[in-house]
Amino acid sequence: MNSTTLREALHETARAGMGQVDDARLARMADTATGGGSPSAMSSGRVRRRWAVGAMAVAAVLLLFVVATAQLLRPVDVTPASGPGSLPDQIFPSREHILTLEQAPIDRASLVYAGPLLEGATSWVAIGADGDEYRALTPASAHLEFDDNVDIAPDGATVVVGRGGARSGDLRLEFVDVATGSTRVVELPDDGAGGSIDSLLWGSNEGQVAVLANVIDPTDRDLSSGRARCFVVDTESGTVIALPRKAVLAGELAGWTPDGKLVLVDGPGAPSGRLVVSAADQDEVTRLATLPGLPLGFSRAALSPDGRLLAGLVDPTPSAFGDGSVWDLQVYDLEASERVLSSNLSSYAEDQTWIIGWRDANTPVLSAARPGADGPGVLVAYDAAAGTHEVIVRAGAAGVPRYYLTSRVAADVLASGGVRKATPPEQPWYDPRTAWAALRDGVTGEVVFGMALVLLVLGGVLVTRLSRRRREVSSRSGS
Amino acid sequence: MTGSAVGDFEEFVVARGAALLRTAYLLTGDRHLAEDLVQSALGKSFRHWSRVRGGNPEAYVRQAMVRENVSWWRRRRVAESSMADVPERSSSNETTDVDRRITLDAALRQLSPQQRAVLVLRYYDDLTERQAADALGCSIGTVKTQAHRALKKLREVSPELVDLWDSADEEQEVRS
Fold it and tell me: Is B84 inside any structural domain?
């Protein structure tokens, strides 16, 4: 024993431990290793390979699911509700990112959007004629909120921004020249403690802007109360005209009559259940019409260019449940004091942002900045003579939720030509919602969908080949 | 894989399988685990057989065995053998040798898989420190350290086998 080395002892131990190993046993091991053995003896490598194939298949299925879901959630074009199509479907196509007008040059902004520029600043942006050009209407340092009041001049050359604050002089309008970026400020009268602007409405020409403001009462300690005021500002001279207080009782700016009077309507939920439409100028306030009861309110009022029709939105849901996100277009004939159109669309726009404009005397234009899948912005063509209406196509900026369409559409700009695609000024690619929209709407969706299909097919082929090989080895082993 | 390659592989297993099984037994301390270990290593080697056959296939399989064994241990798949797995005695008149084997077997089980692997590669398969390091996928220094610790522990748990440990030390000195 003393002469035994560790090597010899190990050999003895190994020999005794394993006992006799016959060739048949080794042949079986070789057979198993080459693929003919039982699954329990399957090598971990093979198990990993199967796992890889399975994981690939699961990934492909998941990818298919995601893309299919995105495709299913893709907004569906609105089917014309009635009447023949009188406008080309190319107008306001569903997948447009931003609406622009072919014939509008860069210095005549077609529409105005609020969107994040570089470094997260917010600005108002004018979209140019060819769809690739844009211009920030406000300096990047001038941070604007999405709900700031902005309106574009009918000729698209100037944008007016309403500013407010809690100090005297804060209540003001800023006229921004779209072409040069220069800004002119017109201060509005207050009571010494500033105020805020509730609504702006450019005149039918470039000469005047109506302002509905809330002027802070300085005698109120917490400055929480204010007095409603209505002004008309001469854009050339900067002269501010205060309208009679009676006009302020009506809560919303609706438009201008052909003879230059400002038209206002009472706000949503008028206690009388009636819609009172008034026309005001510097000297007097005249009641134009008292329209049938609207217990659920009326908003986004817009007067037709000829002053004959009044369009607006109502929330068709019971007031206890309504949150303003569901809307229905209604049109009233002021002369007859009756409702001539209820679109019965009952559509949904989650951010409650809409625009109503008039394409012509008979065509109210609706745009929803972020339309829901079942409630896109639409162009409603109303035929006053026939008493019919037609839902033409959707409008708005589906799939680009970071861009808000908050300005009224200038009538002559809208009527000036067709609409074509535009590139968003700053695509917020980092936003998952935008990525989702790209997956859903863009070429990316098709590519990813195709890749998923290819992966699935490859996985299937691989599994088939492995199975066939295993069968071959098994049959060879059996024979 | 061609038919000749498969035949070549089977020939290799029949020729060297027994030796591999014995190495595996020393690595695992259990006959059944040894078979599983060899089987697994052969399975891996077969997939690369076209490349492996041209070199040193036995070294390749041994390396796969060593690493697989450590991997098993890390995944806690290796259960310590019960006394029922103690090797059978070959004959009643070889009591001394049998006792030594049993003692050595038990002592080896006190080592970690790495220490046991170093010991087997160095003193059973007669590999150099560099070859053992390659097989284990570690440095030569690690091999030296593990071997030293393994022998130290074996001395502690089985002082009656002092002649074996001394012979290992002598061999170590000669090699170095």
Answer: no
A11 shares contact with chain B (CB less than 8 Å): yes
| Cβ distance of A6 and B87 shorter than 8 Å | no
Instruction: Give the chain B residue nearest A11 (alpha carbons).
Output: B124
Which CATH number do you get for residue B144?
1.10.10.10
How big is chain B by its Cα radius of gyration, in Å?
17
Mean pLDDT over A372-387 rounds to: 52
Report the 10 Å Cβ neighbour count for B74: 10
Residue A325 pLDDT level (bands cut at 50, 70, 90): low
Report residue A112 as tokens: 């105005």
With contact defined as beta carbons under 8 Å apart, do A312 and A356 qualify? yes
A294: left (phi over 0), alpha (psi -120 to 50) or beta: beta
Residue A438 pLDDT class (50, 70, 90 cuts): low
Chain A and chain B share a number of CB contacts under 8 A equal to 132
Per-residue pLDDT at A41: 45
Q: Output b/e per residue, B138-161; b: 16+ Cβ within 10 A.
A: beeebbbebbeebbeebbeebeeb
The boundaries of the domain holding residue B105 are 93-176
ipTM for this prediction: 0.81
Note whether residue B85 is domain-resident.
no
What lies within 8 Å, CB to CB, of A147 at 6+ separation is: A406
Q: Which amino acid is at B7?
A: G
pLDDT range class, residue A39, cuts 50, 70, 90: very low
Domain termination site, one of B30, B52, B79 = B79
Helical H runs in chain B?
A: 3-28, 31-47, 49-52, 57-74, 95-108, 113-119, 129-136, 140-157, 162-175
Model confidence over B86-115: pLDDT tens digits? Answer: 344 444 444 577 778 888 888 888 888 888
- How many whole angstroms separate alpha carbon B38 and alpha carbon B16? 11
Query: CB A27 to CB B10 under 8 A?
Result: yes
Contact list in A for residue B9 (CB cut-off 8 A) is 30, 33-34
**Residue A234: is its pLDDT beyond 90?**
yes
In-domain check, residue B134: yes
In 3D, which of A364, A269, A343 has the Cα closest to residue A80? A343
Last-in-domain residue among B50, B79, B108: B79
Alpha carbon of B139: minimum distance to chain A alpha carbons (Å): 23
Q: Distance (Å) from the C-alpha of residue A451 to the closest C-alpha of chain B? A: 30
The stretch A104-112 carries a mean pLDDT of 36
A16 touches chain B (CB under 8 A): yes
User: Do the beta carbons of residue A424 and residue A97 sit within 8 Å?
Assistant: yes
Of A337, A248, A255, A252, nearest to A290 (Cα)? A337
CB B120 within 8 A of CB B143: no
Domain spans of chain A? 6-30+42-69+443-478
- Looking at the complex, does the CB of residue A45 fall below 8 Å from at least one CB of chain B? yes
Q: Is A68 on the interface with B (CB under 8 A)?
A: no
> Is it the case that residue A109 has pLDDT exceeding 50?
no
